[in-house]
Amino acid sequence: xxxxxxxxxxxxxxxxxxxxxxxxxxxxxxxxxxxxxxxxxxxxxxxxxxxxxxxxxxxxxxxxxxxxxxxxxxxxxxxxxxxxxxxxxxxxxxxxxxxxxxxxxxxxxxxxxxxxxxxxxxxxxxxxxxxxxxxxxxxxxxxxxxxxxxxxxxxxxxxxxxxxxxxxxxxxxxxxxxxxxxxxxxxxxxxxxxxxxxxxxxxxxx
Length: 206
What we know:
Elements: E1 3-6, H1 14-25, E2 30-32, E3 39-43, H2 47-57, E4 67-69, H3 76-79, H4 85-94, E5 99-104, E6 118-122, H5 127-136, E7 140-144, H6 158-165, E8 171-174, E9 184-187, E10 194-197
Parallel strand pairs: 1-8, 2-8, 4-6, 5-9
Antiparallel strand pairs: 2-3, 3-7, 4-7, 5-6, 9-10
GO molecular function, one term: double-stranded RNA binding
Protein name: Threonylcarbamoyl-AMP synthase
Domain YrdC-like: 14-201
């Protein structure tokens, strides 16, 4: 049975953040709020936890396209090849915000992602998500939790999320109602932006 923890986006309680980070460091899975839909996440450095998420999603880990949720742009150089100036300026304009940017992966990717040519980078405009990453000291690997309902793609109520997921994860964070629109995905691997999925993020930044 997962823990159900209430956090406030305008001022996340550091003691509770530390409690969740301890669980992440021990290989736990969490469901947490972002600036779009609720995400399922784990510590990027924990292969066993990554495998658990892949299993839940019904995919092989080496085929998974998970996002790396970062606190700010300083993590980029760890996981992404050097970017040209226009690309970096676009990221600075858009982030933090409801975007996932697909960028060329570097040679320093964690073991589970060694064969990946690209990575999806997210910096959500959500204090809870960023506080978790900041306290953890490295990105959270994340994927959105979809709903089985044909009408609603994403569950927005944390209590309903807890009911459905509490036997699969270690913590569900209640950060208020989530959004029903996922992030806008923009591929920047060829040096110019290609919109893969239009979501919550406006295309006016391009």
